[in-house]
Amino acid sequence: xxxxxxxxxxxxxxxxxxxxxxxxxxxxxxxxxxxxxxxxxxxxxxxxxxxxxxxxxxxxxxxxxxxxxxxxxxxxxxxxxxxxxxxxxxxxxxxxxxxxxxxxxxxxxxxxxxxxxxxxxxxxxxxxxxxxxxxxxxxxxxxxxxxxxxxxxxxxxxxxxxxxxxxxxxxxxxxxxxxxxxxxxxxxxxxxxxxxxxxxxxxxxxxxxxxxxxxxxxxxxxxxxxxxxxxxxxxxxxxxxxxxxxxxxxxxxxxxxxxxxxxxxxxxxxxxxxxxxxxxxxxxxxxxxxxxxxxxxxxxxxxxxxxxxxxxxxxxxxxxxxxxxxxxxxxxxxxxxxxxxxxxxxxxxxxxxxxxxxxxxxxxxxxxxxxxxxxxxxxxxxxxxxxxxxxxxxxxxxxxxxxxxxxxxxxxxxxxxxxxxxxxxxxxxx
Length: 430
What we know:
By secondary structure, this protein is α/β, with parallel strands linked by helices.
């Protein structure tokens, strides 16, 4: 592909992203599967352009005063010192020549962006993120711009961390132990994920892809052999599998989701991992779950703001309406989860969000509606569970961000069902 054709491909992909919920990396993969003539350098160059625009969409739109894919790509070329005239040539496979209006805009790119454009987040989130981070907003947002590493969770039903780590290093991966999660491995380059997912160790169930913050959240569930545990919004089951390993396949895990394909994917992953104590259940409005559970994990549907490093397109797809819908669903699922926790049991609320309205606000509202629950210190549970220094952001609850913990943005709170609602726990509760 010629350079101009790469530019048109980037515009085409960005246009397609506006019409789908498909993640950008998957859409790019499918785009080039249908265009086998594109070489590896072409694919890499187009993908780099697409992700550069996605990560800087708000500042680019501010600069050129237009948020269409063509304008955003044009602004990115101008800002990096490229020559748009040779790329927007109108020749075969190249973008059409610039209009008079586009010429004016490219020659008058604006500077001094407002906070939301400089921080690359939706303007309506300015009060919310300022409440979360105060004067550190731009530093937090800058960390969410960086490329995320690849984190793995070693499946202790199959292998031990030292064994997997040594094997990965022998294969040439720049792998190291995660600083906090005891079964985690981190590989700095995100480009490693495709080859890792095709390797023999992955196929044997030796590890799963899972960010370290999510691994920490699973540990805070304090799942034990013989317990009865519910994963209420399991998805494809990353945390379900972590719980199964912690329980050493003893006891029962019920994994629920509203999407049957996700549960089917979980069943396949469980078979590969050797997890035999998982039962899947389709979640619907009329579904009764028999009995009570020692622990209920609610990894709630959310804005996904904590994953902006991995899915930068989620930044500009988030709207006030979508956020309000997520918050209403979080409250509904929290109340449903509460009814399934036995006295003395725990409800673990988690999101991959950095927004207080989805995190501590939801917990505070839940506790007002459910006085038989009381918060439990995440720091105390971590100390009891691991005996290792607590990660940054671990206090009464766990609040992770790329800047603070080097992980995705994540939130976890632990709530104990105690009739007295005093927070007093049995001696066996940690």
